Amino acid sequence: MSLLNTVFALPVLVIALALLGLIGARARARVAAGGDIRALAALPRAHGTNAFLSVLVPAVASFAALSLVRLIGPRQGVEILSAQVVFWVVLAVAALGCIGAILRSSIGFRARVASETWIKSLLIAASTVAILTTIGLVLSMLFEAMHFFRQYDWRDFFFSTEWAPNFRGNSALGILPLLWGTLYISFIALAFAVPVGLFAAIYLSEYAGPRMRGVAKPLIEILAGIPTIVYGLFALITIGPLLRDYFAQPLGLGSSASSVMTAGLVMGIMLIPFVSSLSDDIINAVPQAMRDGSYALGATQSETIRKVIIPAALPGIVGAVLLATSRAIGETMIVVLGAGAAARLSLNPFEAMTTITVKIVSQLTGDTDFASPETLVAFALGLTLFVITLCLNVLALVIVRKYREHYE
Amino acid sequence: MTVLSNSLLVQDDRTRRRNAAEVRFRACGLGAIGIAMLALAMLLTSVVSSGIGAFRQTYITLEIPLPAAQLDKSGTRDPAAMAKVTTFAYAPLLRNALLARVKQLGITATLSDSDIGGIISKEAAATLRDHVLANPDLIGGTVTMDALSEGRIDGYFKGRVTTESAALDGNTSPEALQLAQSLADAGVIETRFNWSFLTAPDASDQRPEAAGLGVAILGSLYMMLVVLVLALPIGVATSIYLEEFAPKNRFSDLIEVNISNLAAVPSIVFGILGLAIFINFAELRQSSPLVGGLVLTLMTLPTIIISTRAALKSVPPSIRDAALAVGASKMQSVFHHVLPLAAPGILTGTIIGLAQALGETAPLLLIGMVAFVRDYPAAYSDAAGLFGEAATALPVQVFNWTQRADPGFVERASGAIITLLVFLLVMNTVAILLRRRFERRW
Fold first, then answer.
1. Of B252, B269, B332, which to mutate for an interface test with A (greatest number of A Cβ within 10 Å)?
2. How many angstroms away from the CA of B225 is the closest CA of chain A?
3. Between helices B394-402 and B214-240, what is the axis angle to 10°?
4. pLDDT digit string (tens) for B382-430?
């Protein structure tokens, strides 16, 4: 029995049954055809595939379902199934599938159609993973957030201006300072990234020759492929000290290397390629006839761009900016390393501030006790973040789809 | 009526202004590209210049006598008995060997004996102990060993620590640096390529000189395996269903909207999902590559699906029609004809998705991957299952090191980033080569 208890026994047995089914069904089909496989409604190979899948798919599905029951059961206080039961049930399902498939392979059995039904059900099952993920995302945050709001008044959470978690209790957990930090940093990032990205896109699509475009465009796109932890470290070791020594201290605005400005600028660099490559596509989609029409009226190239192309591409550009905004709001590592952890409402961009994402990390790392509001607040923060970015993404998609000009 | 200039050869005011605006506009565009390039260059030089030092390490070559009386009191060479001797007993051996060497070279140091011993890393005693326990025959003789030097001394040879900064530092002194310099002149101390940075596990807060990336690289590798095994089949199956079979109805619309939304969900939210579902609900182990891989799989699925769908879409309908015309079923036309033609595109998308997953940090912090791990995880263990042993990952190791006090860890973190970027570069190059190699136009 100890052998059967190991993780490998069940998969090995199921696969063995599947192979048995494959060989058995093939042989039976051949025998049924009496040596002339033209008499069969489907090739022996299809009989084999069908048998293989009729063992594997129900076995995996039953294993998944029973494991879920085993996980949920003890939480309700009852042990419904033991590991032994799961083992034997799955094995029985596999054996039934094996026997059934072998018995079904006769002359008239359309094995190919049957096996394709199995495959299609697998394809559909795979595509539900995306839906399950979304449901999982929402439920996991919703449940814990509800626990949180049972212990902590929602009005205090959404409208209080004080964030002071205290693991001994009596914490002030107002989201406003975090929201302010998030929006302030995102604003600085966008104020840097949108003009730079937009001008880069305009230059690359309207002015640059093929050689310049061939070099500059991939180089800018490298920025999008760099992991955010690299930007975080860059903020920490280079930009932070630079801003502190040359701007913050001489101007008397603060002496902290981690600041809103540090995180904002570095995040701006990260966002440049998002703005530029999306805008680039959209500007390229504006038909040449519109440019030619403008030139024919005597406009210079920059006038054409400002008066004709940008207005035509505006919905797409707004969509790109909204997508970049949702990136900025959800960004974590740059602000963790660049902006500090102090929750405050201040206008000074050289002061350390903090964001929703940073607080999610700090409330959930270390020793966490999932009964205290100080930990559960992270789920409420996550839910808020999810809702904000979801709204921005949907808005961006709607704008791009609905208001984008369609040319012939 | 405004008076217009009559000559074609002289520009009037308005034309001049318009042309100037044109030049300004162009300059803005060029400036924007310049800023982006400058940012990229700054980023790379800053990381490389501060991290390249992690790939070189300073060692002190010592001949260490191993007295049997201290190391093996029972005299049996029995490893179990010898293991009772702790690293504290080995540290004086190293110090005495160094003192003897200093005396032999005739270097006069103003330092106390224990301060001279301080230029050897605390890690060296543990290394020596492991070496002796593995080879009990060495006891009684002398062993030549390259001992790690202390982090500040190491920093001095790489230019990170100067005599001025040492004067302000409680952990070292200008005299110690002077001593190290004279030892280096005599050939006792040398700086050379540091393999152990890539193979050694993490070290404690006090000894940055010993910290390595081994566990992180292995953990990242395990996670990438999980992502590849799960995300590729699920992603491709989803794309095939949506692109080739799905009827235009509510269900397929729902899936499609879902996927584009998932692609834009902040990564930290996936970390919350991992914590709530995989760790709190399914009770998988914290910090295990399995959980990390599952979270990253869910995160990279949209990327793989979107690129796979593009690859499937680019296969012309005539291929499908030809297959159908000779009597293939819809399923056969897809699996025998469309999928092989789309394979290079799918592979490229998968590699890019993997590269994204490799660099992701935030969700892994939430599932406990930030923990300090000293032991190499096994791929399979009876207690923890497949990929269930605690590990760490490259980007998380970087984050972990940035949170430590000793400045030596900044160098290590940048070094780790260089390693990470090299991996990413290789992956992207492979993706580009694949695309070039198999690119096909119809």
1. B269
2. 18
3. 130
4. 777 788 888 999 999 999 999 988 888 999 999 999 999 999 999 999 9
- Residues B273, A140: C-beta atoms closer than 8 Å: yes
Same domain? B170 vs B288: no
Domain end (from B124, B159, B193): B193
Q: What is the mean pLDDT of each run of 10 residues along chain A (408 residues)?
A: 61 93 92 85 90 94 89 74 85 93 88 93 93 93 92 90 81 90 95 96 93 92 93 94 90 85 95 92 90 94 93 90 93 91 86 92 81 89 94 87 69
**What CATH number should be reported for the domain whose range is A172-405?**
1.10.3720.10
Q: Looking at the structure, tell me whether residues B332 and B285 fall in a common domain.
A: yes
CA distance B359 to B393: 9
Minimal-distance CA residue of chain A relative to B284: A71
Whether B148 and B240 share a structural domain: no
Give yes or no for B313 touching A (CB within 8 A). Answer: no
- Those residues whose C-beta lies under 8 Å from the C-beta of residue A349, and which sit 6 or more positions away, are A184, A188, A253, A259, A260, A261, A264
Q: Kindly report whether the global pTM for this prediction surpasses the value 0.95.
A: no
Beta bridge partners of B64: B143
Taking the C-alpha atoms of residue B244 and residue A116, their distance in angstroms, rounded to an integer, is 14
Do B291 and B407 sit in the same domain of this protein?
yes
Cβ contact, residue pair B32, A129, below 8 Å: no
For B262, the closest of A130, A204, A206 (CB atoms) is A130
Q: Are B368 and B237 in the same domain? A: yes
Q: Do A129 and B234 touch (CB under 8 A)?
A: yes
> What interface predicted TM-score (ipTM) does this complex get?
0.91
- The residues, ordered by sequence, that sit 6+ positions from B155 with a Cβ below 8 Å of its Cβ are B53, B161, B407, B408, B411
State the total domains in chain B. Answer: 2
- Whether residues B182 and B328 share a domain: the answer is no
State the Cα–Cα distance between residues A259 and B211, nearest whole angstrom. 29
Distances in Å between the Cα of B367 and the Cα atoms of A249, A332, B290 are 38, 15, 11
**Cβ-based contacts of A279 with chain B (< 8 Å):** none
Would you list the DSSP string of A285-331? Answer: HS-HHHHHHHHHTT--HHHHIIIIIHHHHHHHHHHHHHHHHHHHHH-
Task: Please list every residue in chain A whose beta carbon sits closer than 8 Å to the beta carbon of residue B39.
Answer: 223, 269, 272
Determine the residue of chain A that is closest to B298 in CA distance: A133
What letters, b where the CB count within 10 A reaches 16 and e where it falls short, cover B318-350? eebeebeeeebeebebbbebbbebbebbbbbbb
Could you tell me if B181 and B230 lie in one domain? no
- Contacts A133 to B, Cβ<8 Å: 258, 262, 273, 298, 301
Question: Is B36 at the interface with chain A, CB within 8 A?
Answer: yes
Q: Mutate which of B26, B28, B33 to test chain A, going by most A C-beta atoms within 10 A?
A: B33
* Structural domain of B178: 55-193
What are the residue boundaries of the structural domains of chain A, listed by start? 3-140, 172-405
- Whether A140 sits inside 8 A of B272 (CB atoms) is yes
> In this complex, do A220 and B245 lie within 8 Å of one another by their Cβ atoms?
no
| Type and span of the H or E element at B64 | strand B56-65
